Please model this.
Amino acid sequence: MVEMRYVKTSKPIDISEWEFGFGDFHEIISRSLTEALTNTLNNHPPCIELPFMWAYRGHDGRGGKAVTDPLTLYLTLPLDISTDGECAWEVSLSEVIEDELELIDRDRATQISAALRDLADKLDKIEDE
Model:
């Protein structure tokens, strides 16, 4: 798994506007939860993984069925009861790129295409053990 890095220019975690229904305790609870989430994510950053790597074993590496799309990405968050970060979300890299196609100009499309070709070249050079 690859640990994600916090984008320093993004806004910090702040759940002060979330409604918990705790009345007078709202401020202290939201501040405490914001601090807990911030500390947890700083100490255990979300991770990205390719569950297709487990497909040859007939599962996704997390107890689910094997993933058939080799570009499926799992984002794992340290928000479960264990310390293994089993809380996961999925998306296909293809979906991400396709969703942005109408916004991409020719120059950016060329750059993305070249980066994907470079990665494909590295994959093509892997030899069987």
Summary: Residues 1 and 87 are 14 Å apart (CA to CA). The two ends are 22 Å apart (CA to CA). The chain has a mean pLDDT of 91.
